[in-house]
Amino acid sequence: MDTVTSNESATQGLPPQRRVGLGRWLSRYGLPLALVLICGVLAWVSPHFLTWQNAIIILRQISINGLLAVGVTLVLLTGGVDLSLGSLVALCGVAAASFAHPGEYPVPVPVLVGICVGLGCGILNGCVVTVGRVAPFIATLGMMTAARGLALIASGGRPVSNLSDSFLWIARAELLGVPIPALLLSVVSVLTWVFLVRTRWGRHLYAVGGNEKAAHASGIAVTRIKILAYALCGALAGLAGVVLASRATVGQPNAGVAYELDAIAAVVIGGTSLSGGVGGIGGTLLGALLMGIINNGLDLMNVNAYYQQVVKGFIIVGAVWLDRRQRN
Amino acid sequence: MIENRMLDAPIPSRSEDWLLQAEGLAKSFPGVQALQGVRLAVAQGRVHAVLGENGAGKSTLMRLLTGEEQPDQGVIRLRGQTVVIRNPHHALTLGIAMIHQELQVFPALTVTENLFMGREPQRGILGWIDRARMMTEARRLLQLLNIPVSPLARMGDLSVAQMQGVEIAKALSVQAGLVIMDEPTSALSEPEVSALFRIIADLKQQGTAILYVSHKLDEIFRIADTVTVLRDGRHIATRNISELNPEKLIDLMAGRELNLAGARPVLGVRPDNKPSPPSPKPAAALSARELTRQGAYTDISFDVHPGEILGLAGLMGAGRTELVSALYGLCPADRGSVFINGQPVKIRSPREGMALGIAMVTEDRRGQGLVLPMSVKHNLTLANLKRYCWGPFILTNQENRLADEQIRAYRIKARDRNQKVEHLSGGNQQKIVLAKALLGEPKVLILDEPTRGIDIGTKSELYPWIRQLARSGLAVILVSSELPEILALSDRIMVLRQGRLSAELDPRQTTQEEILKFAMPT
């Protein structure tokens, strides 16, 4: 192919980079830096912050949101959204709890039931969005409402209680000092990261979110990838529902209200774009951690929980605003 | 046709007589010094062309003049007065109007509403929009420019050429002293180009200055009075058109000898020695029989053989893109059949097309060809990731090696394989789309307007590559609206007129005029 006679190198005509450094460095390291800064401030303000027990508390608190956030990252990367997460948490918690009464089934059964119910709902979400061509906002809004109704029906409107010890073990136990839910979050995060960054389907997922028409023209099975994203998101919501039911010791049909918003907030703070194609698991985890640490810090400072809501709102907007500024 | 060149306006001697002067303009973006020490001087009633290669800085310069960006250094003077153009709205009030290459219109609103967007005439203290006055004025402007469009028409229903006409009417209505046109003919057919040039001649007569950005040298020589050449963000030369010829211009733009061997020169002048016709043709790689799609094309049948380039000529809207999209599976036909190597096939999606050995470079590289937020490497391998995978896992080393090879082989100008493609120039982006399509080792390659919006330098690289691809055994289908290009590259030409095949021509014996004759609606 080298028929032209000149000897240009690939970068001739491009001047050496001088100021690229700062802008890109900030957008890559800005969030971890903010995290370190906030930890520093909190450590100074409260002596209880930098303790192992507090770290465990934070890990426990972010586990459920973290699982949801990792799942919804996949959906947001395709340019979609999933508003049904909170309702799925409730539905799957109720479903799992129904199979978790003492002496009935071994523990893996309720866990699998919870995950599978979530998976099924996720697949349904995906099909409505792709084959049904309904906007993700509307499709998952419908699922949010319907799933909540199903949870209430399945539970008869009352919490499903009397759960076996081995089921309750899931949320309570620790392995080497780390709570099981946090371990679950770690394993799930690593697996999802590998999926996104190292496998073909992960790359296809980024392409679908980045430019769906180009992905289709490149021979990517767009429909299948999207359904996969919603399915995995639903499955993780199911897992989150199992963990929540275990922690709360009941399958609560009214659990999880507005959980999807916290999950999406974590993802967005972490740098994933709402229009798709940009972002990743690392950012999501940092976002969830940031939110968890700030909540924890405000708790330690005895700030009224209502004020915490306001602070959270500012952080969400502030983080995204900063991110946009750096990108431009 | 004869361009109505009025007596050229005299060259101003005092600074106040120049309409626009810019000196020492500099602008940098993260990692790139887009402009450095650029100067420009535009006189009233003249067409001033701005030319330059990949990344020469033309778009940046236009953005500075319309207020979309602010210069880091330099000064802009309008009629002798220094101005700071704060934003596009301010530019409009200063009398600088721009017709963008990708038209920025409101498709859901009417022509009139588009014309007066932001400057609606108002009545009374509450600011009611004076619709009657808007309509009358809109009608007047459209008639003045001879644009056959109703003021009540929905903007989105118009053709590209009509929308452009409305944009120009808009520029007139703000009494723009300077109209900037960015690649105005890239989506126009020949008769529409002539209509545009007539409008430009009218504008000149009224004293309006035109800044004309284009890659098409033949147009520059038809319409421009003065030419400014930019290269690598610097001002290279400004000359009157009478002092220039195509070779000198190309030299100025590229600053090096361009090897045009392997393709007949880009201006459509035919060389003396023509390659002999291929002796007994191998069996058709792809055959189409009676392909029909309602509203697009009817009863199209043709063959294309390995080693040949089949050119598809025709006006905008003749159905060429729709036809080749059917072959690739983007937009299947309603009726008819396709055969690959004699076997009947059904192609319902690009996946199936690619599996059958068909690859396509679509006409809209930003919309369908590339995933802009992704890197060069990721885009290159997107259609064929399976080759660089072990099971589901991507083999990063192999992928990196491949990307580097492709960047070298295609001479893609990027910082490295991880740079996001949205920051690359059109020519480099197009090379990536081509490389991506070829990675799958297709047997049939469809090129839809492969050199649209691309500078001369990259075009002259692409032409020999396309010829070489055919020589190495690919069957190539080339859709192009540039007649010189079709004549230079094709072994056979088919002309589509309003969805039907109107002629099959031999490029060695036909002319641009004959092709046009078969392409124009009867």
Which helices and strands occur, and which strands form pairs?
The complex is a heterodimer of chains A (328) and B (522).
Chain A: H1 20-45, H2 52-77, H3 85-98, H4 108-130, H5 136-155, H6 165-172, E1 174-175, E2 178-179, H7 180-198, H8 200-210, H9 212-217, H10 222-248, H11 259-269, H12 281-300, H13 305-327
Chain B: E1 18-29, E2 32-43, E3 47-52, H1 58-65, E4 73-78, E5 81-83, H2 88-93, E6 96-99, H3 111-115, E7 122-123, E8 128-129, H4 131-144, H5 160-173, E9 178-182, H6 190-205, E10 209-213, H7 217-223, E11 226-231, E12 234-240, H8 246-254, E13 286-293, E14 297-304, E15 309-314, H9 320-328, E16 335-340, E17 343-345, H10 350-355, E18 358-361, H11 365-369, H12 376-381, E19 389-390, E20 393-394, H13 396-409, H14 426-439, E21 444-448, H15 456-471, E22 475-479, H16 483-489, E23 492-497, E24 500-505, H17 512-519
Parallel strand pairs in B: 3-10, 3-11, 6-9, 9-10, 15-22, 15-23, 18-21, 21-22
Antiparallel strand pairs in B: 1-2, 1-4, 4-5, 7-8, 11-12, 13-14, 13-16, 16-17, 19-20, 23-24
Proportion of residues in helical segments of chain B: 25-40%
Summed over residues and divided by their number, the pLDDT of chain A gives a mean of 88
* Major beta-sheet overview of chain A: 2 strands, antiparallel
Q: Supply the CATH superfamily name of the largest domain in chain B.
A: P-loop containing nucleotide triphosphate hydrolases
In oligomeric terms, what are we looking at?
heterodimer
The SS-based structural class of chain A is: mainly alpha
**Percentage of β-strand residues of chain A:** under 5%
CATH architecture of the largest domain in chain B: 3-Layer(aba) Sandwich
Question: What is the terminal separation of chain A in angstroms?
Answer: 37 Å
Largest interface pair:
A-B, 39 and 55 residues
Number of strands of chain A: 2
Structural class, judged by helices and strands of chain B? alpha/beta
Which parts of chain B are unreliable, with pLDDT below 50 for 5 consecutive residues or more?
Answer: 1-10, 256-278
- Provide a count of the helices of chain A: 13
Uncertain residue ranges of chain A: 1-19
Largest beta sheet: strand ordering of chain B: 6-9-10-3-11-12
Instruction: Give the helix level of chain A as a range of percent.
Output: over 70%
